[in-house]
Amino acid sequence: MKVVFLGTPEFSVPALKRISQIPYIQLSAVVCNRDKPVGRKKVLTPPPVKVFAEQNGVPVLQYDRIRTEGVEDIKSLAPDIMITCAFGQILSKEILDIPKLGVYNIHASLLPKYRGASPIHYAILNGEKETGITIMKTDVGIDTGDILLQRSLKIGDDETCGELFTRLSELGADCIEIALDMIKSGNINLKKQDEKGASYTKMIKKEDSLIDFNASAESVVNFVRAYNPSPVAYTFYHGEPFKVYKARISDVKGEPGKVVKSDGRLIIGCGDGSVELLRVCKAGGKIMDVQDFLRGNKIAEGESFNI
Description:
Blueprint: E1 2-7, H1 13-21, E2 26-32, E3 36-38, E4 43-45, H2 48-55, E5 60-62, H3 66-69, H4 71-77, E6 81-85, H5 93-96, E7 103-107, E8 115-116, H6 119-125, E9 130-137, E10 147-154, H7 161-185, E11 200-201, H8 217-226, E12 233-237, E13 240-250, E14 259-261, E15 266-270, E16 273-282, E17 288-289, H9 290-296
Parallel strand pairs: 1-2, 1-6, 2-5, 6-7, 8-11
Antiparallel strand pairs: 3-4, 7-9, 9-10, 12-13, 13-16, 14-15, 15-16, 16-17
Helix pairs in contact: 1-7, 6-8
């Protein structure tokens, strides 16, 4: 079975690796976005799937816009099937019609809930207790295609987005191997999505990660979890960005955004109580546990964050 794999970030690598190990699969090419400048020094950096592909002798194709740049290349490969995983580009009907067995997507939610670009972030932001992987036959909509299979997993109470990314990426690898076996054997029973349960997620941007201490304590803690490790939840202290990597609900009452306690613990008021900040980083500083941070940084009770 000739496969073309489309993906870009680290999340895609476990699935790509698993597909490359299946005996009946011929991995014809890996398609990803172009190399991008990364970090303060803007070092041109290849996508993780490109690194894996080149290490394993798989041809790589890179496009900013596959709909206009890549159609003829994909046609020339004549794949039996195409697999997408966090590719980040919408495929045209012309591309979807190329593989005779279709295009299948590895999506990190239990569709139709959390379609779109950021399903893992949103699951944590909304306090979900469960999420999972959906293998879907791609159509021209955004994550609207028929479902081949789904597998769920529980979200840990303190689990961060980064931790959940890792677990879901491994589950995605398990699911695509099962799905390919089903497709190869012809054991396919596709199920249409229930549009009544559909929800959409947007692309996460840095400006989305500003903490609102007027929200409930539970919402603030979920917010911190959802934006760890990127783009990292933050507030302002004395006009400078102040990042928060870990927090928990506190039972102390407080005014939203005001410091309630700072004697070895840093507790900030919220809309319905307070949160205790556990791991933080001030502008230009290092990530630190709060106890260590407070030894070298004086914060007075009654001071305000987000100003």
